[in-house]
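for the recovery benchmark. tokens below, seq after
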């Protein structure tokens, strides 16, 4: 009985974590424009094979979540921090 409860709990937590990841991905995906003189003028954040990716004129990289709205830009050894407004929108 305890084993079945434990399996059910782990399954529920796995699905809850996946739902949160999906929501975060949807919130972050989109086109971002940067001020004139920036390294890149714009980037597009999308999902490819279940992972968030960031593409621009200089190339494409997978994004790896560090914590919250902070991500490692794998291919460029950088960090992306997505800012939210007062309504918690990216």
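predicted aa per position
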């Amino acid at each position: 009985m305890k084993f079945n409860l434990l399996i059910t709990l782990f399954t529920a937590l796995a699905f809850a974590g996946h739902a949160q990841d999906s929501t975060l991905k949807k919130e972050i995906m989109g086109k971002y424009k940067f001020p004139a003189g920036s390294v890149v003028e714009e980037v597009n954040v999308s999902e490819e094979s279940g992972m968030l990716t960031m593409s621009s004129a200089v190339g494409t990289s997978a994004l790896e979540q560090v914590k919250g709205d902070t991500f490692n830009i794998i291919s460029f050894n950088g960090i992306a921090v997505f800012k939210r407004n007062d309504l918690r929108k990216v």
